[in-house]
Amino acid sequence: MTGITNVGHFDDFDNDSRIEFLVTTFNDNIGTVYVYGYPGRGEGVKEGDDHSFPNETGLTAGPNPFNNNTVVKFVSESQSEAELTIVDQTGRILIRDARYQLKAGENNLTLSSILPGYNSLPGGAYILRINADGQNSTINLVKLP
After folding, report:
1. What's phi and psi for 26, nearest 5 deg?
2. Three-class secondary structure of residue 118 per DSSP
3. Which burial class, exposed, middle or buried, applies to 131 when counting CB atoms under 10 A from its CB (0-12, 13-18, 19+)?
C-alpha cells in the first residue's frame, strides 16, 4: 500500500531497554521509511522493513533552522569515507552519493562546501543521512526560505 501512515506508537523497537516513539511511516512500493523519535535523544529516519535504529554518533547540526548554511558535527569511530544523502519529508531523494573523507573522532561538515546542489534547495524540512563505518545516521534539517 502506497502512502503515509501516522503511527504514533511507543515501543522498544531495537531491544535496547529504551522506549522509542514511531511517528510515521511512508511506503512508496519501493521501500518503507520509518520516522521515529527517541525521548530525550532526538529524531531520525530509517529505511527498510525492520524496526532497527542507528547507533549513537553524536550527530548534530547548527544553526538549525538555518538560512544558507549549517555545520553538521559527526563522530566517526575510524578514518573512513562517508556517503551523504538529503531527502525531503516524503522520502524523495534530492541529493545522493555525496562523498566526504572522515577522520577518526569528531568531524565538522560544512554542507554548502561538500554537497553539490545544496545551495539550490528551497526553504523546507529535509533529512540528512550519513552512512559511515557501517552506520546510517540521520538528522532533521530546516532551511529557511
Report:
1. -130, 125
2. helix
3. middle
Instruction: Give residue for cell 554537497.
Output: 115
**What are the strands of the beta sheet with 60-62, ordered from one edge?**
60-62, 71-76, 105-110
Measured CA to CA, the distance from residue 99 to residue 93 in angstroms comes to 15
DSSP string, 67-87: SS--EEEEEESSSEEEEEEEE
> Between 49 and 138, where is the model more confident?
138
Whole-number Cα distances in Å, 110 to 73, 77, 100 = 9, 20, 11
Q: What is the CA radius of gyration of the chain?
A: 15
Residue 13: per-residue pLDDT = 55
Nearby residues of 22 by Cβ (< 8 Å), 6 or more positions away: 7, 8, 9, 10, 11, 13, 34, 35, 36, 51
Please give the domain boundaries of the chain with CATH numbers for all domains: 3-47 (no CATH), 60-143 (2.60.40.3110)
Looking at residues 6-28, what average pLDDT do you find? 55
**Which segments of 18-104 are extended strands (E)?**
20-27, 32-38, 42-47, 60-62, 71-76, 80-88, 93-102
